[in-house]
Write a structure and sequence with these properties.
heterodimer; A: 458 residues; alpha/beta; TIM Barrel; eight-stranded parallel barrel; three-stranded antiparallel beta sheet; 38% helix; globular; B: 402 residues; 36% helix
């Protein structure tokens, strides 16, 4: 019996920046803003033949207890601008940026992605996110607060409108015949009209068709609506389910939604974010992982993390001491602003009870508790163990690959590139050379024009 | 004033498509099919850097180029379409080491928060060589691309009338607020805000981050920026100005203004007006460069330059008219003219090559050596930042405690 062919793994690198997994206190940790750090990170990813580099975005500095949150890395570059510069120091690596649909306009974002795609020779990708808060909106002339139900409808219309603009040029308009003096085949090149609930715009788009036609589209939302949105039109999902069982469930759920949109399973990639710690042996890696967790969760960070649940100021508590005896404030969230994960704890009283019991049973301090209940690293082990586990997860349809989030800037990917990637290549599940120039080639995605032709023919 | 005691001139080149003459793309060396590639722009900027120029500017707009102000012109015989200027500048930054990079930013339809961090990031990727050229857009068809406001369809002629002037004034007032927000955001992080204090677990000293709390007639912005203060502190702010309203923007907000004098007397008059506005704005102590803009056809003999202009005009089907003085002649003649204008008070020039593939190398390989022979231009890059090249100090942060 012949088994089905092995899936090829897709790997990407998430620049470790404003993120509570980033360890800035390590002596190896470099700048999070100097271009040399970004260039180092991108070159490592390209040396390892990764599919793409990924940048997150947050458009207002996070606050907790009415103050700018100062315990994680703070500060990041402008997404488009840094990606354009990285196109100059790489040749093949995909360049994926998170761009918010709430605080932008379709015309501007479409021309930025079309420009980035031209300037990178077809390597751009857009992680479309939508925001929810007037807090971030205070940084923008157009404000930003949207009721929950309008958020997705605006995001959908934004993405559709940007797509219409990018499709307004077909690729054959520029003649540039010096002899005859015809530059443009058609005076109406780039014409568009969009009339909708959120956008009412018309005119001529001013960037000609880029190599990929459209950037590769990522979606990161996890709600029912988000999954449907991704199934309908995204090229890839940046998911949070990196464990085997939850990964398989998510994978089956989302891929199962594709058929009703006339899409095949390989037209939407599932790529969870994953952290890793390597060591010479598995035991070695476990020891390093414990060390990294302690570095990620300082005493001050542990208290701040507890405040997400308690929803009150806990600064007077000793992080090395027991959990607070006072109960969480179950009123409106007034502790934290500008971050997404706060509302994960839906029942703070129950969570607090559970955590107190856990801490008492194990004799844990506040810091120990946060270290143990927080996110454990996804892959911990020797290079052989990590390579084998990643491959098993992908072949078992827990994902199509991973977006790796190292904890050190900029060298945190180096060891993975040098030790794990060659093992995956030996197993025949990861490329040894780039097979094409564009990110769509790396991801095995068709060019939008070919996809359209395919749909028209069927 | 003797030529040996003249302070050196500053030189910039304005990049726009294949050049400023509408028929420039038809020159054999023009490479119009490569306009939308990174290699095209990298080659032009490398040529400018070869000539030790202070900086290049990148034109931009939020719609197709048009010879009309009120509508697209529907022409198919000129270059149409372009890439985002900030991203083009950033793409070129890692490939160059000394030259300043000054993309156009359209204040009318964009977010100052986004553009502030974009130019700050350009400053990081270029290690201190970023600037911006702020521009307004009163073109109604560009407003239609955003659908957020309606602008009157005014022709170039009507722009000079009362309705046009009212609209222009309004848009420049908004642009002044826009630059103010950008500048405050650049200062919203003090230089030493990142402390990495392992003992207390603090990455930053948040007392060194500042809300800018800008409230204006057009928008309000809270801050701070998400991007730390850029290497230059304040990247270079520039603007093109033809009349009193934009002169005022230059005088109030810019480090450098581009003006369009047609002769030395005109230059003296413009310089006096801008300097008076500068004084009125209370900035007379601050350095403010005034660059003359000139379109140039440069050849080793004057007849060749004039013939080339005539030939391009014929291809275009009409004589080329510009807001700036158009020069056709030799490097020595141009050097004479620049020095004459400099004596009228201009501190430098932004040359607009009529044909990028011809006139940019003529600037970097003919004009520059001519100016160097006269002791009027640098013979090596003397500073690492754009502000440094222009003799501008790194400004103190407005939010730092004295």
């Amino acid at each position: 019996m012949s088994s089905k062919p092995l899936k090829q793994i897709h790997l990407a690198a998430h620049f470790p920046g404003v993120n509570n997994t980033t360890v800035w206190s390590d002596p190896e940790a470099g700048s999070h803003i100097e271009f040399s750090s970004f260039a180092h990170f991108a070159r490592t990813a390209e040396r390892a033949k990764f599919d793409f580099l990924f940048l997150a975005e947050g458009l207002r500095l996070r606050e907790q207890g009415g103050h700018i949150y100062d315990l994680d890395v703070v500060g990041r570059p402008d997404t488009f601008t840094i990606l354009a510069a990285l196109a100059a120091v790489t040749e093949h690596l995909g360049l994926a940026g998170t761009i918010n649909s709430t605080f932008n306009e379709p015309y501007e974002v479409a021309r930025q992605f079309a420009s980035l795609d031209h300037l990178s020779g077809g390597r751009s990708a857009w992680n479309v996110v939508t925001s929810w808060d007037a807090f971030t909106g205070e940084n923008f002339r157009r404000g930003g607060f949207l009721p929950q139900e309008e958020r997705y409808s605006r995001a959908k219309e934004f993405l559709a409108t940007a797509g219409e603009l990018l499709d307004a040029w077909h690729g054959d308009e520029i003649v540039a015949d010096q002899a005859s003096g015809v530059f443009l085949r058609d005076a109406k090149a780039g014409s568009f009209v969009h009339t909708g609930q959120h956008f009412d715009i018309h005119g001529q788009f001013d960037v000609p068709r880029s190599p990929q036609g459209r950037p590769v589209i990522f979606q990161a939302g996890d709600s029912e609506e988000g999954r449907e949105f991704a199934a309908a039109g995204a090229d890839a999902i940046f998911s949070r389910y990196a464990a085997l069982d939850t990964g398989q469930a998510f994978y089956a759920d989302v891929k199962g939604r594709l058929a009703k949109y006339g899409r095949r399973s390989d037209q939407l990639l599932i790529l969870p974010a994953a952290t890793f710690v390597l060591g010479d042996t598995d035991a070695d890696a476990e020891e390093r992982a414990r060390h990294v967790r302690r570095a990620q969760v300082s005493g001050a960070t542990a208290l701040k993390h507890l405040e997400f649940v308690w929803n009150r100021d806990l600064s007077s508590y000793d992080p090395e001491g027991p959990l607070p005896d006072v109960d969480p404030d179950v009123g409106d969230d007034h502790i934290s602003k500008g971050r997404a994960q706060v509302r994960m704890y839906r029942d703070p009283l129950a969570t607090a009870r559970e955590w107190r019991e856990l801490a008492a049973a194990n004799n844990w301090s506040i810091r120990d508790l946060v270290i143990h209940t927080g996110n454990r690293q996804t892959f911990v082990g020797s290079p052989a163990t990590v390579a084998r586990t990643i491959n098993e997860f992908v072949q078992a349809d827990a994902s199509d690959g991973f977006i790796l989030v190292p904890h050190i800037t900029p060298g945190g990917l180096d060891e993975f590139a040098d030790t794990v990637v060659p093992l995956l290549q030996e197993q025949g599940v990861f490329r040894t050379e780039y097979e094409g120039p564009t990110l769509r080639h790396h991801l095995g995605l068709a060019h939008p024009d070919d996809e359209r032709a395919e749909r028209a023919a069927s | 004033m003797s030529s040996t005691s003249a302070s050196p001139l500053h030189l910039a080149v304005a990049l726009d498509g294949t050049g400023w003459h509408p028929a420039s793309w038809r020159e054999p060396a023009a490479r119009p099919k490569e306009l939308f590639t990174a290699a095209y722009w990298a080659a032009l900027v490398a040529e400018a850097e070869h000539g030790l120029l202070d900086f290049v500017t990148f034109e931009d707009g939020l719609g197709l180029q048009s010879t009309r102000y009120d509508a697209p012109d529907g022409r198919t015989d000129q270059v149409r379409g372009r890439l985002d200027a900030v991203l083009t500048a950033s793409r070129v930054a890692p490939l160059t080491r000394h030259i300043g990079l000054v993309p156009t930013v359209i204040a009318t339809h964009t977010e100052p928060f986004h553009l502030s961090k974009a130019i700050a990031t350009l400053d990081y990727v270029s290690s201190g060589r970023a600037g911006l050229r702020v521009q307004i857009s009163g073109r109604p068809y560009e407003a239609d691309h955003f659908g957020r406001r309606t602008l009157s369809p005014l022709t170039f002629a009507e722009l000079r009338g009362p309705a046009g002037q009212a609209q222009v004034t309004e848009l420049f007032d908004e642009a002044a607020d826009y630059v103010e927000v950008i500048r405050r955001l650049w200062d919203s992080w003090e230089d030493d805000a990142e402390i990495r204090d392992v003992a207390t677990g603090r990455f930053i000293d948040r007392d060194k981050l500042h809300y800018i709390d800008f409230e204006g007639g057009h928008f309000s912005v809270k801050g701070p920026s998400i991007t730390p203060r850029p290497p230059q502190g304040q990247p270079l702010v520039t603007a093109l100005a033809h009349q009193t309203v934009p002169y005022r923007l230059v005088a109030r907000q810019a480090d450098l203004g581009y003006v369009t004098p047609h002769d030395a007397d005109d230059a003296r008059r413009i310089v006096a007006e801008v300097r008076a506005e500068q004084e009125q704005a209370g900035r007379s102590a601050e350095p403010l460069h005034l660059f003359g803009d000139l379109v140039v056809f440069l050849d080793d003999d004057q007849a060749a330059a004039e013939d080339r202009r005539a030939r391009l005009d014929e291809l275009a089907g009409e004589p080329y008219v510009s807001d700036a003085r158009t020069f056709a002649g030799t490097p020595a003649q141009l050097a004479d003219l620049l020095q004459e204008f400099a004596e009228a008070g201009l501190t430098g020039f932004r040359l607009r090559p009529a044909v990028a593939a011809h006139d940019l190398p003529a600037v970097s390989r003919r004009l520059v050596p001519e100016l160097q022979r006269r002791g009027a231009f640098r013979t090596a890059y003397e500073a690492d930042t754009l502000r440094g090249l222009l003799g501008l100090a790194r400004p103190a942060n407005r939010y730092s405690a004295a």
